[in-house]
Write a structure and sequence with these properties.
It is a single chain. By secondary structure, the chain is mostly helical. The chain has two domains: 35 residues, no CATH class; 30 residues. 46% of the residues lie in helices and 10% in strands.
Length: 80
């Protein structure tokens, strides 16, 4: 393994792959594994989608009853 040949490695950046995690853990067990920026944003996006989808009806009601002047300009803007 390449990582075992570089014992000074302290931090490793990886994606969400379990294969990457396993290889890094075996090759550099003391190194800190961090998520790369893309995967952090991907995790955040997935979490926000799950949370906001559970409030779908409430969010649509807010959009339609907003007193601030914001409203849907088309019939399809708030469809699922």
């Amino acid at each position: 393994m390449v990582l075992t040949q570089h014992p000074a490695v302290e931090v490793l950046s990886r994606d969400r792959s379990t294969a990457d995690k396993s290889g890094m853990t075996q090759g550099a067990p003391e190194a800190l594994q961090v998520a790369d920026r893309f995967d952090l944003v991907q995790n955040l996006t997935e979490t926000l989608e799950k949370v906001l989808s559970s409030y779908d009806a409430q969010l649509k009601a807010i959009v339609h009853s907003s007193a601030s002047g914001f409203s849907c300009n088309t019939d399809s803007c708030c469809e699922s």
